[in-house]
Design a protein that fits this description.
single chain, alpha+beta, Protein Yojf, Chain: A, 5-stranded antiparallel β-sheet, 3-stranded antiparallel β-sheet, 1 helix, globular
Length: about 100
């Protein structure tokens, strides 16, 4: 992984961690031609974990009361903005996840 990619992943973790008491909108898009997420939830995040696994690199895990979402450095690109964190699949152009701060 490039230094920029690692830095972006760490920045995403810090952003999510700093907003832990905010409500989040999580939308997951997968091969969606109508621009509608196949999964959408609004929830508070209970926990955000940053871990490292040899085969996958850095892993961000987001836990809500209803679900757990994991994003590995090996499979996801990340973009951090003031109002959201976006993960885009490295494996195809049609899969991405937007975590927006409400």
């Amino acid at each position: 992984m490039t230094t920029k990619h690692v830095t972006n992943f760490k920045s995403a973790y810090q952003k999510l961690k700093s907003k832990h008491d905010w409500k989040f909108s999580i939308e997951l898009y997968h091969h969606d031609f109508n621009s509608e997420p196949f999964l959408h939830t609004e929830s508070y995040i209970e926990k955000v974990i940053l871990d490292y696994v040899d085969e996958h690199g850095l892993i961000i895990t987001v836990m809500t009361p209803d679900a757990t979402y994991s994003f590995s450095e090996k499979n996801w690109l990340v973009h951090v903005d003031d109002d959201y964190v976006s993960f885009g699949s490295k494996n195809d152009n049609d899969t991405h996840c937007i975590i927006e701060f409400c």
